Amino acid sequence: MAKRSRRIRPNKNEQAKESIDFLEKIFDISPPHNLKILDTAAKQILAIGKKHGKRPTREIKKMICRSCKKSLLPGQTSRIRATSKVIFRTCLRCGRVNREILSINGDKK
After folding, report:
1. Residue 4 pLDDT > 90
2. Residues 3-32: what's their mean pLDDT?
3. Which pLDDT value is given to residue 84?
4. What would the DSSP string read from start to end of the chain?
5. How many angstroms separate the CA atoms of 6 and 66, rounded?
6. 56: closest CA among 64, 89, 74?
7. What is the spatial distance between Cα 78 and Cα 14, in angstroms, rounded to a whole number?
8. What pLDDT does 107 receive?
9. Domain extents for the chain?
């Protein structure tokens, strides 16, 4: 009986990390008026994170609405309000409000 050859697969965790890094670069490179590309990248980042357990960076997490899975661009698709202790980010598409509490030192918790 002939031996089956095994296909060598690259490590999926490395692939997931590379994919998220690539999609995060799209947020930096893509012009803000091209919302369709940014929305697709945001949805894919959340899907990869859910499937492989690789989470995006903190800055990118702030740019994605968790309920409608679309990009948040200040002034276009989101509204940002700041008080002395809290930053409010409101998605203008679905209305979800994200609150970020600041510590006494001015650092984020």
Report:
1. no
2. 80
3. 87
4. -PPPPPPP---HHHHHHHHHHHHHHHHHHS-TT-HHHHHHHHHHHHHHHHHH-PPPPHHHHTTB-TTT--B--BTTTEEEEE-SSEEEEEETTT--EEEEEB-TTS-B-
5. 40
6. 64
7. 32
8. 59
9. 12-101
Residues 59-63: what's their mean pLDDT? 90
Nearest to 43 by CA among 69, 65, 23, 79: 69
The tokens describing 10, both together, are 């690259």
- What local confidence, expressed as pLDDT, does residue 95 receive? 94
Distance CA 14, CA 2 (A): 32
Alpha carbon dihedral 8, 14, 19, 25, in 10-degree steps, equals: -140
Return the sign of the alpha-carbon dihedral for residues 67, 71, 76, 80.
positive
Question: In whole angstroms, how large is the CA radius of gyration of the chain?
Answer: 18
End-to-end CA distance of the chain, in Å? 62
**pLDDT value, residue 103:** 79
